[in-house]
Amino acid sequence: MRKLWKEVEEQQAKIRVATEEALRTDANYAAFFSTYQQESVETFIPAYAKKKAELMTDGKECSMYDAYRLLYDEENAHGHLWEIQQRKLFELQCRWRAGLIDLPEVRQTYDFEYWGALIERCPFLPPITQDEYERYMQYLHSDAYEQHLVWHNPWQRYDVLVVNSEEGVEILYPAWYEYCDSLMGAAWKQLPDIRGEEERPFRYAARRARADTGTPAQNNKDDRPWISANDPKTIETFIRAFESAELIRYYQAVQRAQQRKEADEDIDHVIRYLQKFDEPLPIAEAGDWRKAIFDLAAAMERKVLVRGCERAYDEYVRRQAMNLPQELSLDDDAQQHEEHDRELMWQELQDGKRILGVANEA
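The structure corresponding to this sequence follows.
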């Protein structure tokens, strides 16, 4: 098997090299590429060469890509428990922006995103109370609960969650926030953004100054569209224009396989997930057996999540009682990245103040 895989790798390498050479030197491609930004063409060529090599070697036996992710195991319930603190921090952010409170470790609006990333160690948040924990568990059992990637939510993105100022960015208000708002109100979201408005001209000045110091090449705007090897329509157009009928068949086989996978809604993976449970799993009656399977899987995922959150809270209480720091979700590299971004945002704010003749802060 290892020898066979090595042969496939060697064959793919030869195809990639030959394809890249042809794309860069064959005049037949020049007119096609001339309508796209040169930078994107340089990215497209090796990406397409790799894709063609994979199609030539794997197209006949396209394996289904396993897109279904098991999001909620007991091991990652830790992140869900910290939604409680994220919501508390977001409310504090709105009050801080309105000038109603001062907070240690907060000098700029971006600091809330920083502490949202390191929510387990936020020094000015009060601990999770028993009442807050019970409210969260009620949420997990309610119809208001929604699955999502915990650490991919913009928990502290004020511009998205309140102002909704980013065009083209579709990010839903977290269901947990909505649940709390329905029980406790959310008048704090209507508070004025005084401190955010104070920062805005300084950041604008700093960013404008950085743009003005760019090289002429950086400032010349290329209005041609961006070509991407990840766009199926572009790939099909390119293959039809320059490749053989054989490669078209391989490409269509891959597309059909992907479409079948999406239509089946990863039923095989869901069944494998359910097979992990030793306990009997009664299936509710449904009009379609696939829906019954998926409903059962969703119910079991939530059951696992609830059990995991119970254990996570027990661990949280134990660490609090022993005065131990809570375990961080970010590794060392990610923490350093957050520190770096925080410092860059602070420096930008100070640069803007210097440009506009306002005294900097220490």
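Confidence is low (pLDDT under 50) at residues 60-72.
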